């Protein structure tokens, strides 16, 4: 018996090896030919003969305690491996991605995802990179993210050195160039930038180019100015989203041009002439869209003018000592409360900063689309436009307690006889739209890139222009991002980091020293 058990394992291993060899032969040739079949049949016959001859020994071996333990271990290992395999298989279909970088470097912006999910047709990206190009992997990762969010987006890489004919075919003359193809149109991107890639997508799929006019002639913000109070950065941001930006001298124009998607009145310092206000009113009554950014104390004639649309423009200043930017004065309120039933602010969750702002109120009326979109904290208040030392502390007699509305929106019925066609020319606009913001500096070069200011003003403009697909949170360019804290947050950081934690460490050190002294 002991002699037969000694040969039990080697004799059983032979048929198993024949079956494995037959499987390997089939895997290599891809054909179940004579050799694989012969090996497999010989192995099966060998196993049958093995179990017939050694049945008693095999039964004794299986019933041994050590064998049962070994089989139990093998079974548990098999179940564990099966679970791992099932998890791996499910992960192919149900993927979970987590971006642990501080600036969400590997996460696409909501704007990009929104555009990808609404692609009307297939888009192909062809990346022309050398095989040894160091930035190739970065572009591959970026394009992979795009393809992950839309089955309509596909990409491939071409090495111009190995396949120069492909580069010549598309007119590519430099490395690190990505070509986007959509219908009969194409555009190129020269860097591994999500913003530039998404802007190229917008240009390709856009039905037309909208024109935004910025009124001039009364001290308004200049779209070509690179000074701190200029609007050059805003102009660049608007143009990146496939819009055109032009200046308009209303006093010399017969009317607001017919191709105007939006008219912007940004920070006028002097009053408009009655004829200019009539041109704006005529534009709105024809279904036009206007954005007013009006600073405290500037152009007072707009107060009665906007009342016809339901706006109450306060001759005041907003003070917020609790939600001001840390290190700034209390005339720069931080806004984090938004009306969530409006396209502009429905998914908007970034803070916005309004340096020296006035109140803009309107009575809520869903029938007209009249809403207050952005509100300061309940600790804020409004005071007279001429600030005094006494106004730095709230007084129920002189001040009005917040929350205070800084942004309001409404719609105005149009004269159907003169109404403008809608987007694409197929519908008549039955409502003009008006948005009023009680500050123009928040969109200036100095503050545009602060927190959510850029996204907020761009979302307002795109909503007015009926470009709803562009209403989103955009990707921030990599670089130095300042940490913006409110006054309360700044105090928490100060007391926690500068006072409490060092005090705890000091107290713990004194306690340990005292205990050692007593022990000695």
What secondary-structure arrangement, pairings included, does this model have?
Layout lengths: L1 H5 L1 H22 L4 H20 L1 H9 L1 H29 L16 H8 L5 E6 L7 H14 L3 E6 L5 H6 L7 E6 L2 E5 L4 H12 L5 E6 L15 H9 L3 E6 L10 E7 L7 H12 L3 E5 L8 H6 L3 E3 L2 E4 L14 E2 L1 E2 L13 E2 L6 E3 L8 E5 L5 E4 L15 E2 L3 E9 L17 E7 L15 H12 L22 H33 L1
Parallel strand pairs: 1-2, 5-6, 5-7, 7-8, 8-19
Antiparallel strand pairs: 1-3, 3-4, 9-14, 10-16, 11-13, 12-15, 15-18, 16-17, 18-19
Helix pairs in contact: 2-3
Brief digest:
With 520 residues, this protein is of the alpha/beta class. 38% of the residues lie in helices and 17% in strands.
Could you explain how this protein is built, in words?
The chain is α/β, with parallel strands linked by helices. The protein folds into 3 domains: 2-93, no CATH class; 110-203, Glutaredoxin, CATH 3.40.30.10; 209-470, Rossmann fold (3-Layer(aba) Sandwich). Helices cover 38% and strands 17% of the residues. The strands form 5 sheets. Strands 6-5-7-8-19-18-15-12 form an 8-stranded mixed β-sheet, with helices on both faces. Strands 2-1-3-4 form a 4-stranded mixed β-sheet, covered by helices on one side. The chain is extended. Mean pLDDT is 84; it is low at 423-428.
């Amino acid at each position: 018996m002991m002699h037969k058990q000694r040969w039990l394992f080697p004799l059983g291993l032979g048929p198993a090896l024949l079956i494995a060899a037959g499987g390997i032969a089939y895997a290599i040739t891809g054909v179940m030919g004579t050799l694989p079949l012969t090996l497999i049949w010989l192995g099966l016959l060998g196993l049958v003969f093995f179990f017939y001859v050694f049945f008693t020994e095999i039964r004794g071996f299986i019933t041994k305690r050590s064998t049962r333990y070994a089989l139990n271990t093998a079974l548990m290992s098999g179940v564990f491996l099966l679970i791992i395999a099932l998890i791996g298989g499910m992960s192919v279909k149900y993927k979970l991605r987590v971006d642990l970088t501080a600036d969400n470097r590997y996460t696409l912006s909501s704007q990009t995802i929104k555009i990808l999910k609404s692609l009307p047709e297939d888009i192909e990206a062809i990346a022309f990179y050398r095989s040894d190009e160091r930035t190739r992997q970065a572009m591959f990762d970026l394009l992979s993210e795009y393809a992950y969010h839309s089955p309509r987006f596909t990409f491939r890489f071409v090495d111009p050195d190995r396949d120069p004919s492909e580069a010549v075919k598309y007119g590519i003359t430099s490395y690190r160039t990505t070509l986007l193809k959509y219908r009969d149109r194409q555009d190129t991107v020269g860097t591994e930038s999500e913003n530039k890639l998404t802007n190229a997508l917008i240009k390709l799929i856009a039905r037309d180019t909208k024109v935004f006019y910025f009124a001039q002639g009364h001290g308004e913000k200049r779209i070509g100015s690179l000074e701190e109070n200029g609007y050059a950065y805003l102009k660049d941001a608007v143009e990146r989203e496939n819009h055109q930006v032009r200046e308009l001298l209303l006093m010399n124009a017969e009317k607001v041009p017919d191709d105007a998607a939006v008219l912007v009145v940004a920070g006028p310092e002097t009053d408009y002439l009655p004829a200019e206000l009539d041109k704006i009113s005529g534009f709105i009554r024809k279904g036009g869209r206007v954005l007013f950014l009006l600073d405290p104390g500037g152009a007072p004639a707009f107060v009665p003018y906007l009342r016809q649309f339901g706006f109450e423009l306060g001759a005041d200043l907003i003070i917020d000592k609790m939600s001001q930017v840390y290190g700034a004065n209390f005339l720069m309120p931080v806004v984090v409360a938004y009306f969530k039933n409006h396209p502009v602010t429905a998914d908007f969750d970034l803070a916005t900063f309004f340096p020296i702002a006035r109140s803009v109120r309107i009575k809520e009326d869903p029938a007209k689309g009249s809403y207050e979109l952005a509100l300061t904290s309940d600790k804020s208040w409004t005071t007279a436009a001429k600030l005094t030392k006494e106004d730095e502390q709230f007084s129920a007699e002189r001040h009005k307690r917040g929350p205070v509305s800084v942004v309001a929106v409404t719609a105005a019925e149009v004269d159907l006889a003169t109404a403008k066609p809608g987007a694409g020319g197929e519908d008549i606009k039955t409502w003009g739209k008006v948005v009023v913001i009680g500050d123009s500096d928040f969109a200036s070069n100095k503050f545009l890139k602060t927190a959510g200011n850029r996204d907020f003003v761009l979302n307002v403009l795109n909503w007015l222009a009926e470009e709803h697909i562009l209403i989103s949170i955009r990707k921030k360019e990599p670089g130095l991002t300042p940490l913006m804290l409110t006054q309360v947050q700044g105090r928490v950081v100060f007391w926690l980091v500068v006072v409490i934690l060092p005090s705890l460490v000091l107290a713990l050190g004194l306690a340990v020293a005292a205990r050692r002294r007593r022990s000695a």
